[in-house]
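From the pipeline queue, job 12 of 40. The input is one protein chain; the requested action is below.

Action: predict structure.
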Amino acid sequence: MKRGGRTLGTNSANVTMPGQELDAATAALATAEAAVAEPARLANEARQRVLSLAALILAAPCQRLLAEAKAARADLVARRVGLRFLLHKLQLEGPEHDAIREFLRQNELPGTFGSIDPNSGTGPLSTGQTISRLA
């Protein structure tokens, strides 16, 4: 029921407030929003500065880690080629043959996109462990 006031729409129901109360509430809301806008902008700017500094600080360790990963991959590929040669040329049998075949069938490396949960701390080298190695 309206009694000379305006209807204020809300998510749950329409609330009827006298005109002056509605105007005061609207003004208070505008004041609160204005008071929050500047601190929110400053917080966003500070966050961007922190991210920029973190990128600068971690650039060299990231490059070092990438170089180490490339060297490890090259070494792994060379070892896999050697195992494949031994498997086919020496015609190994028994548990060695089975172990080498099983190893060579594994063609996916951990750490690829979607292979670990970065927040789980699990896997051969979790994100936390990787970050700690950057130091």
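Job complete. The chain is about 65% helix and 5% strand.
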